[in-house]
Amino acid sequence: MQDSSATLPVILTGDRTTGPLHLGHYVGSLKNRVALQTTHRQYLLLADTQALTDARNPSRVRDNVLEIATDYLAVGIDPDQSTICLQSHLPALADLTLLYMNFVTVARLERNPTIKDEIQARGFGRDILAGFLCYPVAQAADITGFKATIVPVGQDQAPLVELTNEVVRRINRQAGVDVLPEAHALIPRVARLPGIDGKAKMSKSQGNTVQLSATADEIREAVRRMFTDPNHLKASDPGCVQGNVVFTYLDAFDEDHLTVEDLKARYIRGGLGDSVVKRRLEDVLQALLAPIRDRRCALARDPGYVLQVVKRGTARAREITETTLRDVRAALGLFALN
Fold this sequence. Notes:
Elements: E1 10-16, H1 23-36, E2 41-47, H2 48-51, H3 58-75, E3 82-86, H4 91-100, H5 106-111, H6 113-122, H7 130-133, H8 135-145, E4 150-152, H9 158-175, E5 184-186, H10 216-225, H11 245-253, H12 257-269, H13 274-300, H14 303-331
Parallel strand pairs: 1-2, 2-3, 4-5
Helix pairs in contact: 3-13, 3-14, 4-8, 4-14, 8-9, 10-13, 11-13
């Protein structure tokens, strides 16, 4: 990171290392990250520690660290402009999490809509892992550890940023000085992408994704299987674009918005078959993913380079987060041994 970046607004974002990234990640965050890295000081956190809260196979969490870092680089993240770092090698974040737990009640964590939805979806009941319940506190530590003021998230993650700001205000009030800045959520135009089955958001756990590394054949097959309007049996039938996954994806990825609106109007009137709009979507996705896939293949031939990117970024991030920890400890009046 160049010295001139010190005055730029700070962004903190990242992903749990539970599996390869997909189109939902691209439209929800990755596209924004590439665009913002030239105008902001950006940190990308490989959240392997938090991934343990819902991963049954720890080796999967470990194996996906470099996979996700490779995805970052393949979509256009520049390691000279964005810092890619590994959460488990930033001990200051764990220390901040422990400190922040003194400023959040269990009742507040249980009321968080993001956590409530996840608890219900996973059927945890009262058998919820403490680490999962306290995930918003850990995320607050991540955000404030870098003193980030901007956090790109989907709409469903916005409540976690709100809770972070509650923690910040309580810390600052306790300290009597603004030691930490508040952050605001940056929500993309298409904040949530449905899975190809149309039944849920695109999710690794649901198996309804199109991965960034998808081959041409895999893209073609995914588009072929996409949910449309079940009542649109013939091309001449009027169709519905609301809830139609193909049109949702065209809205997200097709830059020719006028043509997409024309296709919608023709589909609603009747006279436009699903095969036509699926063919257009396939062309759009093939054009988007082919260069990403090619860059990914080139990076896969040099895994040592990707590892060095993560090592350098983590060393840089360790300095930043340890400075924040010292600031917070001093502001709270904790005893210092030196």
